[in-house]
Amino acid sequence: MIHGLFTLKNLPSRPPRFINLRKTHNAAPGDVQLELTHGLLAESASVAPKFFYDPLGCRLFEAITELQEYYPTRTEAGIFQAWQTQIAAAIASSGIRNTCLIDLGAGNCAKAEALIPQLLPRQYVPVDISCDFLRASAGRVQARFPALDIVGVGMDFSSQMVLPDAVQGHDRVFFYPGSSLGNFSPVQSLAFLQQLTAPSQGAACGLLLGIDLVKDSATLVAAYDDVLGVTAAFNKNLLRHVNARLRSDFDTRQWQHVALFNAAHSRIEMHLQATHDLTVCWPGHMRRFSAGERIHTEHSYKYTLKAMTTLLQQAGFSHVEHWTDANSWFGVFWAVV
Fold this sequence. Notes:
Layout lengths: L1 H9 L6 E4 L8 H13 L13 H10 L6 H23 L6 E5 L5 H10 L3 E6 L2 H14 L4 E6 L17 E5 L9 H11 L9 E7 L4 H7 L6 H17 L8 E8 L4 E8 L3 E5 L2 E5 L4 E8 L3 H10 L4 E6 L5 E7 L1
Parallel strand pairs: 1-4, 2-3, 2-5, 3-4, 5-6
Antiparallel strand pairs: 6-13, 7-8, 8-11, 9-10, 12-13
Helix pairs in contact: 3-9, 4-5
């Protein structure tokens, strides 16, 4: 491993590349405004969680991961640290040799960066909806590994997983940590995972997935409603982002953060609740909210090991392995097409 890391650091440097697909088919301004309007005018108003991640939202989420209550990030990191040799061996034994590491929802790229010395990928592809934040993060990884071919991709992959031609078409390892898959419903998760097993993703394709597991509701709720109010600020910042994208007039002071565990659906829910009767306006539309009415901003499904294994198999993955922490609070899965 020392020799491999030396190689990544000391071969001739290359600049990172960046491809912004949000300027093309992924996120035309009119499409974004239509999506937001549709959600806000629905009988039960909602805004997709991808709108959390403007530059300030990305930084607030980084702060959330440092909170005592927010166990997923440190627990997942502990699993990768404890089982890194076994995970790398599992990937190698699947026949993947010249790895293209595709980091979905890369954010600050820190999780993938920690894996690079073990996996020694030929190409690293961080993908995120927040383009400016991704540029800075990819640049930092490139500075650490100058010889690594890095292709940053700005896109909303929640709708369609079509990567540009600059991304290596074989030996792909999709890396989807942080239990982000839980933001989809089980039906949506299956459809998303089936995109990863499609023939268009090339031969020797696998998924390295982090997913939060079912546990007591008090621990779950505390992770999404911290005493410092950082998650509340993160949730309310979504309204600022909506204002910027939709030219709406949400006042964050008129909304409060709500987090709860829906046991029937095995999911945490986050909402923004109106503190009093109010009206929100944007070009061509308006919506009246009654006191106590909510906007659904996120749900995060929690799985058992058996349920996630079954879901991956239904999506077309033929071999599934997993590793957990000592408390079985979080799971890391390796699945091969």
